[in-house]
What does this fold into?
Amino acid sequence: MNHCALLNETHDARAQSWLESANRAGDDFPIQNLPYAIFRRSDSGEEFRGGVAIGDQIIDLAALAKLSVFETPAALGIQAGALSSLNSLMQLGPNVWRAVRRALFDSLREGSRLQAALRSCLVAQSGAQYSLPAQIGDYTDFYASIYHATAVGRLMRPDNPLLPNYEWIPIGYHGRSSSIGVSGQTVRRPQGQLRPPGAARPVVGASKRLDYELELGIFVGGGNSLGTPISVGDAEAHIFGMCLLNDWSARDLQAWEYQPLGPFLAKNFATTISPWIVTLDALAPFRAPFVRPEGAPSPLPYLDSQGNRDAGAVDIRLEALIQSAAMRERNEAPHRLSSTTFRHSYWTIAQLVAHHTVNGCNLRPGDLLGTGTQSGPTPGEAGSLLELSAGGSRPIQIGGDEHRTFLEDGDSVIFRAWCEKAGAARIGFGDVQGSILPANP
It folds into this structure.
């Protein structure tokens, strides 16, 4: 994997679109991005279909497919992307994805002869409703931040915070795909079995330690056949793109149930993802060398390659914000809780795929992998309230006279992500938002 070889004219920071909103400084969706979503017009009976973001608009791929203005393989990709989920496009592979990207880039660029045709396919994002971008058959959540693992481990096991396998193996668990929702999801406070501090017996009740986890999601493109591993060097050819992901977590349920088999009811009640999938091609300018903390062991051979060492990391900046019900009533902007970068991840996206399949496990188009909570080395880079509040012992001021140790009913949590550096166009992910509803009576 040579990220320089992946750079081409579609990454030119000087390129401008004939759509003015795509040229605004700081916009998430310039012509160099072109992420995918599944959408329809709000309050309509329309079918959901694929779309591509440009500025404050969406290119309706179903409308574009009907115009037949592109040749294969771009035409094949646009037809697949026009369906009610992106699975068909995902399985077509990198050559088709890149053909679609190039065709859309050329037709959206200033001076394009297809300007009128593309303009007829635009739908305003402000008037759109989104659905899950793919039919997610399986969902695996990893634990790829050593800073998060160490901080949480220190709260639960002060004398042994980091288990001995962590530095060698990407830890993950099989999550629940049926409860994954798209941004705007309302999350009912979960109930389950927990043991109050000092109690001899567990009780059943609503979680009092509800939390978020700041993560990225990785969508699988073309899969692999059962029994055939994906090598770390080939892994990124099987990745369609990335999104934002909030792994809602009930920490009191989790503390009681997580041994010996890991999370269960503490996690499976809800996961929220952003509607837009940013492709790996759009992220190419922001690749960086994969660097482990000093003293960490080198990965085993199946998790190592020269390409992964040279450019396996991606500098995706992340931030978590909160807005309480009282803040909304006061028209007060969300309060930023923390910010970090995916560059701190202990495992790369290629390593996650390689490890997931080393035993012959088969991935399929639309499968979702979570990176696990992304935290950095400093306190302000923590990706959960569990870390920020030191296990609930240190309340955090969020606005006015309000404080939080864990989430309260009415709270909304917002994640944002973007890539930015000199000489490259800013690439944004949009945001993912979810709100907490009271527990069922």
User: Anything to note?
Assistant: Residues 139-437 form a domain with the Fumarylacetoacetate hydrolase; domain 2 fold (CATH 3.90.850.10). Residues 164 and 321 are 33 Å apart (CA to CA). The mean pLDDT is 96. The first strand starts at residue 36 and ends at 41.
